Amino acid sequence: MDTSSHTLKENIEKAKAGNQMAFSALLDRFWNEVYGFQLSRTKNENDAEDITIQTFSRAFDKIHSYDASYEFKTWLFTISKNIHIDMVRKRKKNVWEQHHTGNQEVIKKVLDNAPSAEDQLIKEQNLASLLGHIRNLKPHYREVINLRYFQELTYAAIAEELNEPINNVKVKLLRAKKLLAEMIKAK
């Protein structure tokens, strides 16, 4: 058995046990292949990156279901392909719904473009709640959320700002979003 195959199996087992370094190693090893696979399917860098992030997120959530009789890369590609199919179906559904609602919906949207006082209050309360959850994150997660979503920096710009590899930024952002989702769900 070659060492790279042995290391891969070790990393998968460590990841199943919850080892974050093993997750990072798997992400580093397979990121470019999954991204390249999606870029060839979507022909869109943003979609390919979003799907790749979702692929690793889902793979790490479901790592216990990985069957070692299949190649890990094949398993990742299958997850990635399914996410892309779901995205295409959702977009087609949205286009169909927009096409079939007719002009009445367009007129309603134009006439009712401004949020009501109630809508504005709900939006402000939701934002305050979200900011409260973000404040409860560890500082390094707070920082990456701030840079990505409030300062709207690219992954590359965040990596440069934090002086970290881009894959570390992606993993941190992924973990921060998962933690936020758990906090919100627990509330």
From TrEMBL:
Residue ranges annotated for the RNA polymerase sigma-70 region domain, each copy included: 32-93
Keyword Plastid assigned: no
GO process annotations (BP): DNA-templated transcription initiation
One Gene Ontology MF term: sigma factor activity
Coiled-coil residue spans: none
UniProt-listed Pfam families: Sigma70_r2, Sigma70_r4_2
Record domain RNA polymerase sigma factor 70 region 4 type: where: 134-180
Domain of life, per lineage: Bacteria
Keyword line: Sigma factor, Transcription, Transcription regulation
CDD domains: Sigma70_r4
Keyword Kinase included in the entry's annotation: no
Family: Belongs to the sigma-70 factor family. ECF subfamily.
UniProt cross-references to PANTHER family, sorted A to Z: RNA POLYMERASE ECF-TYPE SIGMA FACTO, RNA POLYMERASE SIGMA FACTOR SIGV
Name of this protein: Sigma-70 family RNA polymerase sigma factor
Natural source organism: Muriicola soli
